[in-house]
Write a structure and sequence with these properties.
The complex is a heterodimer of chains A (about 260) and B (about 300). By secondary structure, chain A is mainly α. Chain A is about 70% helix and about 0% strand. Chain B has helices at about 1-25, 35-40, 45-55, 60-75, 85-120, 125-140, 145-160, 170-200, 205-210, 215-225, 230-250, 260-265, 270-300, 300-305. Chain B has about 300 residues and is an all-alpha fold. In chain B, helix 1 (about 1-25) packs across helix 4 (about 60-75) and helix 8 runs antiparallel to helix 11. The chains are: A mainly alpha (about 260), B mainly alpha (about 300).
């Protein structure tokens, strides 16, 4: 399962990065006389309503999805690690205050808060990343806090303190590294979540704006032509599902590999 | 027992206050003047000033906050900018549709997930298990905004078995409920499998087998019931995902619920309505979690004694 996930993710990353050199078609080039044409030997995924090559747009959309996923996961995990680490290590009123903020953010189901934030800030790629990071860090913080609460009682941490190591050194060198394996699993599954959320927001018209290709925007645009040109919807959705499945396989496999209880 | 209930309810109050504060601050996150944003660039300064006064945006921030909380507690969420109707009234009218869809989706999920999870657990490590779990993981990965239109093409357009959109008969509910419930089914199937495997290793199940109880009876009469208890929490937690998913499903199938109202209101920059919908969904989610916790305390004495 891990291997299948890794292979899927690797293929998509390589295809997204090398798309401009792999394909003879540019994602913006229009072939209006053949608009909505189905898959052919020339255009494997067919053409969209403006005669643009769907394969080129799907691969360019992969870049957007992977970029959003990486930035959201990166920002959320760093924030979550810092906040969760401080919360768990210091405890007391700091932990209580951070805990209440997390409770409030967790009170908003799924990506509802992201929808609300993008609705007021305005639809754009930057605001999508911002909104997903605002809701994303909480999960990482809770995970890291739990790990830190456990790790701070370890004898080698007490020994480090007794040897005169400062708080920052104890946290960075001895406590936080224990949270890395579960954090890696959560980050991998978080990539799948972030990619799906970006696509969902773009589908609702709140994310990436045309003409920049995004899988969500492409699926939404294709709905008008579901009957006469279903390939407009099928291919971006299929790619989205495969990539999310790849990250889910990878995350699940990593969790099994890193957790001795699951072996 | 009563002490546990009161303590759990009191713990919810600060969360609800935090939710209300965050929802209140939403309109103040609008870049520039929210009243100007709602009316557009072509609006006259008088009209904008009038709307600002109507929304109370000309008041000091603290006064606005106190007023928002006071009105929210009494169920007054303001007036829709688009229709001029009370926000609460418009939301209340949509609640039955969303509730119907959410319950139907959860039923679909439970009906699919429990047999799938049981089959996977009973035949653990076989091709059946791998097949069921791959199907479950695929279910989590397939976005409902892609699955919905595809289901509509096949079952509504090509086969003509079900209506494409709208609400009315039971037939209208089938496609939105499947589209919304599949991801939840996938999560529940995985949880059912894990939970049942745990129970099958318990001593009471082994003792039952040792007494000569058949494999099927030890699962259905003994292990299955207990393995479903943890699912209660997962179902409650996933209720939030169902509510968020309903925003998309209602948009796809023109289902006249709160989710569709929210997306329409975002399009019209009807911020009071957006605030109202977000607040209602979040409060519903918090309430469902509270009820689940209380039920859990009722079912499992260890929790209320903690």
């Amino acid at each position: 399962m891990t291997r299948s996930g890794a292979i899927i993710v690797a293929i998509v990353v390589v295809a997204a990065l090398t798309a401009p050199w792999l394909l003879p078609w540019d994602a913006a080039t229009q072939d209006l006389p053949n608009r909505l044409q189905g898959p052919t030997w020339q255009h494997w995924f067919g053409l969209d309503e403006l005669g643009r090559d769907i394969l080129a747009r799907v691969l360019l959309g992969a870049r957007v999805s992977l970029m959003v996923g990486s930035v959201v996961v990166g920002v959320s995990s760093i924030l979550g690690m810092a906040i969760g680490g401080v919360s768990g290590y210091y405890g007391g009123w700091i932990d209580q205050s951070i805990g209440r903020v997390m409770d409030v953010l967790m009170a908003f189901p799924g990506m509802l808060l992201a929808i609300a934030l993008v609705a007021v800030l305005g639809p754009s790629l930057v605001n999508v990343v911002l909104a997903l990071a605002v809701i994303g860090w909480v999960g990482y913080a809770r995970l890291v806090r739990g790990q830190v609460l456990r790790a701070r009682e370890f004898e080698y941490v007490t020994a480090a303190k007794a040897l005169g190591a400062g708080t920052a050194r104890v946290l960075m060198r001895h406590v936080l590294p224990t949270a890395l394996p579960p954090l890696l699993v959560q980050a991998t599954l978080g990539m799948a979540g972030a990619i799906l959320s970006e696509a969902a927001l773009s589908f609702l018209g709140l994310g990436v704006q045309p003409p920049t290709p995004s899988w969500g925007t492409m699926i939404n645009g294709g709905r008008v032509h579901l009957l006469d040109a279903p390939h407009l919807t099928i291919f971006p959705g299929l790619f989205l599902a495969i990539v999310v499945l790849g990250f889910n396989f990878l995350g699940d496999g990593l969790r099994d590999a890193l957790d001795p209880h699951r072996k | 027992m009563l002490r546990y209930f009161v303590r759990r309810v009191l713990l919810t109050v600060p969360v609800l206050l935090g939710v209300a504060t965050l929802v209140f601050s939403l309109i103040h996150l609008v870049p520039g003047d929210p009243a100007q944003a709602m009316m557009g660039d072509g609006a006259s300064p008088q009209d904008v000033a009038e709307l600002r006064a109507k929304l109370g945006l000309d008041q000091p921030l603290l006064a606005q906050y106190v007023s928002f909380l006071r009105h929210a507690v009494t169920g007054d969420l303001g007036v829709s900018f688009r229709t001029g109707q009370p926000v609460t009234l418009m939301i209340v009218e949509r609640i039955p549709a969303t509730a119907e869809l959410a319950v139907a989706a959860m039923l679909v999920a439970v009906m699919l997930a429990i047999p799938l999870g049981v089959v996977a657990a009973v035949w653990r490590g076989t091709a059946i298990d791998y097949g069921a779990m791959t199907f479950a993981l695929a279910g989590v990965s397939i976005p409902n905004f892609w699955l919905g239109p595809l289901l509509a093409i096949v079952f509504a357009v090509e086969l003509g078995w079900l209506p494409v959109s709208g609400r009315g008969t039971l037939a209208h509910l089938v496609l939105p409920a499947i589209s919304l419930g599949l991801a939840l089914a996938a999560i529940l199937a995985r949880m059912t499998r894990a939970s049942l495997l745990d129970e099958l290793n318990e001593l009471y199940v082994r003792a039952a087998r040792a007494r000569g109880v058949s494999n099927a009876a030890s699962i259905t009469r003994h292990a299955l019931g207990n393995s479903l208890v943890p699912l209660l929490t997962i179902i409650a937690l996933q209720f939030g995902a169902v509510l968020t998913g309903a925003v998309i499903t209602e948009t796809i199938f023109a289902w006249p619920g709160i989710g569709r109202l929210l997306i329409q209101s975002i399009g019209f920059r009807d911020y009071p309505m957006v605030q109202g919908c977000i607040l209602l969904i979040a409060v519903t989610y918090v309430s469902v979690n509270l009820i689940t916790d209380l039920m859990y305390g009722f079912i499992d004495p260890r929790i209320r004694l903690e």
